[in-house]
Amino acid sequence: MISARNLSLTFQTGDGPVHALKDVRLEVQKGDFVSFIGPSGCGKTTFLRCMADLEHPTGGSLAVNGISPEEARKSRAYGYVFQAAGLYPWRTIGGNIRLPLEIMGYGREDQDVRVKRVLELVDLAGFERKYPWQLSGGMQQRASIARALAFDADLLLMDEPFGALDEIVRDHLNEQLLHLWERTNKTICFVTHSIPEAVYLSTKIVVMSPRPGRITDVIESTLPRHRPLDIRETPEFLEIAHRVREGLRAGHGDAV
Amino acid sequence: MRNLLPVLTIVATLIALWYAAAVALNAQWARDQAARAGETLTMSALVADTWSQDKPKLPAPHQVVTEIWNTTGAMVLEGRGFSKRSLFYHSWITFSATALGFLLGTALGIALAIGIVYNRTMDMSVMPWVIASQTIPILAIAPMIIVVLNAVGISGLLPKAMISMYLSFFPVVVGMVKGLRSPTPMQLDQMRTWNASANQTFWRLRLPSSMPYLFTSLKVGMAASLVGAIVGELPTGAVAGLGARLLAGSYYGQTIQIWSALIMAATLAAVLVGLIGLIQRITLKRMGMA
């Protein structure tokens, strides 16, 4: 699904070049749930933005769905969920989800069907006519996920989508996201700061470190595909979480 | 209702100050008149005289109110509400130029703003000219516009509207450039991930996002339009309009007439700006942006 070979991105700044990504290699298979974890400045968001063709790598190669990120973007091959829900206040929840469908030229009836379907997927059925300000932060973020699911993209790119939400809401949304992933068979790339979140959600955890931004460890999760919330108490879960923490520490030198 | 008492207090204070100022400014004339007639005025006679002169330096509030009533309500009662002596007639003349100039100015302002936001060359080149255009005193350029347009056979409403436009497009350009640029980088990136065209991004994101900025600009633009229309009426030979009333009043020392035209103009401005404020509230509320 995604294949990065020796991918590099260097920003030229007044203080000299900044290596946001250096020699990144990664293969993501179809149906994977991949988390990217690491401290600020490790390039995890930059990597995701490269996949989305929002940043342009300065070296190496990157393929999304076997084609270049630009072609993938133009063929609308992925949905992108940002840190903030970014719903338009002048559109209803239904209208917000309809927005990408209108832009992509889906027919009116098709739009209606799709809006209904994705609202059910994220547990917001019945909220179609509400305005964003009438919803809580967690519900708004679910609506923004629904918006990214509404069109036919097999790939979902998520940039710390639950970063601004409190722990309880976050747990709940994590559980729902796993459900959704099971049911829709999408490939998900998920950027996060949180070790438990990464371990709970992923089939593959990519640990990154800064200066230069690079991958220090890729952990294949041994947890079963179906995961109740209390799997987080099991020794197996803690074992993986420990390995992630070790990876972060190693990449960070003495800083932690 | 809680606001009523403070507001009335301020109004009452202003009116009291106005009456006091009328006494102070008009007293000299009253004393001179009395001295010429060989009389001395008592205090009460002096005050009464300063509040009822024909051509006072500063007319008292009730004189202005009476003049306004005589040229508006009273004429309506007589069935001559729209005669050439009526302030309604003059206000209408001024209003029509203001409204046309405001519409033209808004259209021009929005068009320039779109050009500035979407075209790099315009972004670099237009703004300095827009700002320079506003540093030219309107009083200097207004007669030239009237004369030039008159020479090519355009007279009446349009030249005045052009001057209104000249003043009112400026706040619209400045506000709309800011408004069209108000979407966050995240919102623009999001449009990019959907491979939205420039057109779709404009109609679905940039334009709706700019609405609060647009309305703020429209309020300033409307007030500027009215000023433009009045200034435009000054050099037209004082035919009609509030500006013409002001000019005629100053020719003949009719201070009461000047003040009543001034108050009429202020009222007109307040009503027009208030109207935009109302539309703004309704629109932004419906858009969830209020």
UniProtKB/TrEMBL annotation, chain A:
Residue runs in coiled coils: none
Gene Ontology molecular function, alphabetical: ATP binding; ATP hydrolysis activity
Keywords: ATP-binding, Nucleotide-binding, Transport
Pfam families in alphabetical order: ABC_tran (PF00005)
Domain of life: Bacteria
UniProt key word Iron: no
Cross-referenced InterPro entries: AAA+_ATPase, ABC_transporter-like_ATP-bd, ABC_transporter-like_CS, ABC_transporter_ATP-bind, P-loop_NTPase
Domain ABC transporter: 4-235
Protein family membership: Belongs to the ABC transporter superfamily.
Protein name (Swiss-Prot/TrEMBL): ABC-type nitrate/sulfonate/bicarbonate transport system, ATPase component
Provenance organism: Roseovarius mucosus DSM 17069
Source taxonomy: Bacteria, Pseudomonadati, Pseudomonadota, Alphaproteobacteria, Rhodobacterales
Automatic annotation (TrEMBL), chain B:
TM spans (from-to): 92-117, 129-149, 213-236, 256-279
Gene Ontology biological process: transmembrane transport
Record-linked Gene3D superfamilies: MetI-like (1.10.3720.10)
Keyword Repeat in annotation: no
Gene Ontology CC annotations of this record: plasma membrane
Membrane topology of the entry: Multi-pass membrane protein
Compartment(s) where it occurs, according to its Swiss-Prot or TrEMBL record: Cell membrane
Domain ABC transmembrane type-1: 87-280
SUPFAM superfamilies attached to this UniProt entry: MetI-like
Major location (coarse): membrane
Pfam entry (one): BPD_transp_1
Keyword tags: Cell membrane, Membrane, Transmembrane, Transmembrane helix, Transport
The family this protein is said to belong to: Belongs to the binding-protein-dependent transport system permease family.
Name of protein: ABC-type nitrate/sulfonate/bicarbonate transport system, permease component
